[in-house]
Design brief:
Mean pLDDT: 82
Strand order of the largest sheet: 4-5-3-6
Shape: elongated
Distance between the termini: 45 Å
Largest sheet: 4 strands, antiparallel
Helix content: 40-55%
Order of helices and strands: HEEHEHEEHHEHHHEEHHHEHHEHH
Radius of gyration: 25 Å
Number of strands: 10
Strand content: 5-15%
Structural class: alpha+beta
Number of helices: 15
Length: 381
């Protein structure tokens, strides 16, 4: 994003707060520009660095104003015209986005910024003011460690999504109530069927009844995913890993299915699958234990499908948005719109469409369409 693009009317003078020779964008405008900068970074594959200067809660507004004039002047001497300065939190935290940082230069650039900004602030602030300022740096896109047992996304880089979730608080309470009620009712209704399937799985192949797998949930937080086991124990996952990489890269071929002959983006003749497992997958009955995941809060009844860690490793940066904007679900917009007949990028777009236009009524409509999709076997094999 160049200077001319930044001056295209988005940065209105009315939305700026003049501080000395430097203009600081309002919190709303700065956060909107952060969202645009994330999209630009996803396309260009060039990261940006967000630097935050936290003034602390204990300072009065008058003291903040004087300190900020000095900070703004210091920033003017140490940032480029293409970088953006604004409020990350109004009257408390100033943010600066250093854009289009080369991947190979990231560590060097960060070190230079820290040294230069720290020295400049020390020269322009009193000792007391300098000690109150907390400086932090945040790089987008983040490096997700798939072995970590914690949240992978940095909420500091997504203030717009945090605000959106807060504005939907009432709807989220409704959604959680629907999840708990719906999963409890489903488990009661399907209890006899659950027992029959459990016996069938146990009697037809060696191994546990349930398949427990590490999956990646909302914000990149891992959880244990439950399904009825549909594969032989001790199988080699490399077949699936290789196909998933091709699928995400858009190089996978459709495999013939037992449906209408259009083929699916899925392994249909997987030697790892047991005979009873093939039936369970075809009818989606292997998914029934996920109602326990819903009860625990790891998943929702409706949402994007939770990926395995090696799938996330193959993601392009923009694919991660499906994990950031909605909790994973048992069914979703993708499942009722073609399922595995849809290319991976189109699946992600459907997940994002759901997350950005979500409402309780949309969940109800998807839930009502799901039995029909299962019966017809759309995208199954």
């Amino acid at each position: 994003m160049n200077v001319r693009r930044r001056d295209n009317g988005l940065l209105l003078a009315a939305e700026k707060v003049a501080l000395g020779e430097r203009s600081v964008l309002t919190e709303e405008t700065f956060q909107r520009m952060m969202a645009l900068e994330r999209k630009r970074s996803e396309r260009s594959r060039k990261p940006f660095i967000l630097m935050l200067l936290d003034m602390g809660e204990q300072q009065t507004s008058a003291k903040n104003e004087k300190a900020l004039v000095k900070i703004a002047t210091a920033l003017a001497a140490n940032t480029r015209e293409t970088d953006l300065t604004g409020w990350h939190q109004e009257n408390r935290v100033i943010g600066v986005m250093f854009t289009e940082i080369g991947l190979e230069d990231r560590s060097v650039t960060l070190r230079i910024m820290i040294d230069r900004i720290t020295e400049t602030l020390r020269d322009n602030l009193t000792f007391e003011q300098f000690n109150r300022v907390r400086i932090s740096f945040h790089v987008f896109p983040e490096d997700w460690d798939q072995d970590a047992n914690q949240r992978q996304s940095n909420p500091t880089l997504y203030p717009d999504l945090v605000k959106r979730d807060e504005s939907r608080r009432y709807f989220r309470v409704i959604k959680r109530s629907m999840d708990v009620t719906g999963s409890l009712v489903a488990l009661l209704i399907f209890a006899p069927l659950l027992l029959v399937i459990a016996f069938a799985v146990k009697l037809t192949s060696k191994g546990p009844i349930l398949f427990r797998q590490r999956r990646v949930g909302q914000h990149g937080e891992p959880f244990v995913f439950l399904k009825f086991r549909s594969m032989y124990v001790g199988n080699n996952a490399s077949i699936h890993q290789e196909y998933v990489k091709k699928l995400i890269a858009g190089k996978a071929e459709k495999h013939p299915s037992n449906g209408n002959g259009a083929g699916v983006y899925k392994l249909t003749k997987d030697p790892r699958v047991t005979p009873i497992g093939a039936f369970l997958r075809k009818t989606s009955l292997d998914e029934l234990p996920q109602f326990f995941n819903v009860l625990r809060g790891d998943m929702s009844l409706v949402g994007p499908r939770p990926p395995v860690p090696y799938e996330v490793e193959a993601y392009d940066v923009w694919h991660r948005c499906r994990l950031l904007e909605a909790k994973p679900g048992i069914t979703g917009l993708w499942q009722v719109n073609g399922r595995s007949r849809v290319k991976f990028d189109d699946m992600v777009r459907l997940d994002l469409q759901y997350a950005r236009t979500w409402s309780p009524w949309m969940d109800i409509k998807i839930l009502l369409r799901t039995p029909g999709a299962v019966v017809l076997g759309e995208g199954a094999h």
